[in-house]
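Lab notebook, bench 4. The sequencing result for the construct came back, and we need a structural model before the next group meeting so we can plan mutations. Quick request posted to the team channel:

Model the 3D structure of this chain.
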Amino acid sequence: MLGIAAGHGGGAPVSAVALHTPLGEEVLSLCAGDRVTLSGLVYTARDEAHLMMEERGIPFDPRGAAIYHCGPIIIDGRVVAAGPTTSARMNNLSGFLLDKGVRALVGKGGMGEKVRCQLRGRAVYLAFTGGCAALAASCMKHRGVYYDELGMAEAVWVLEFDKVPLVVGIDSKGNDIFNDVSSKAKLQFSLLFK
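Done. Here's the predicted structure in token form:
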């Protein structure tokens, strides 16, 4: 997939950092804006899955895990579409997973201040471009499912990622590309419309 990603500020191309689950302390050295590829087993979880795992327990080893905010379409054991869902919906639901050792949250649109604080010193948020569900699926294989009684969109799917291209949206130091863009946009807006 992506072997080279554009560098910061339009400079020379920079290789994407290759990550493989289970993740360890290597994620702590990543910086907001870094390009990465993610391979290995990843677990999907949307709202209902978070609530179920909090109530019944996490059905996989969370240490070093990556949680993908996604409700994939899986037909006959094949991942057909697997684009990210809006991560902010999980702002109040992610803390217990991070407390158990999850090292990466993956989704779109960023997350709130609460999660930014919960990530500090232990995990990162990886951003995936929305609107690319079929393309995303081409880098993923179905490996299992937990809580399938929740239905296709809400079950916890075990997906094997193969060099899925992502961007560090929030690093373990609290730097947040979404917050930075919002602040810059507000400043520009205020200058334009005094």
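The helical segments are 47-56, 95-99, 113-119, 133-137, 177-192.
Will bring this to the meeting.
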